[in-house]
Amino acid sequence: MKIKYFQDTDTLYIEFKDGPVTETKDLDEDTLLDLDENGDICAITVEHASKRTGVPQFSFEQVAA
What we know:
It is a single chain. With 65 residues, the chain is mainly beta. It has one domain. The protein is built from one helix and five strands. The chain has one helix at residues 49-52, and strands at 2-6, 11-15, 23-28, 31-35, 41-47. Strands 1-2-5-4-3 form a five-stranded antiparallel beta sheet. β1 and β2 form a beta hairpin.
């Protein structure tokens, strides 16, 4: 998984897996969902991210099974 924040455009891009995107769905005016040929999520793009998310603050926690 990769998370990129583009400060110049205030865009957050969360890539869950690398691969060809076959469909992009508009979830709302500022949120895009990229899907592969099986309908699995490849990525999410969030515009105006600083107003809609906790960017630029970020934390990651992996919980043991």
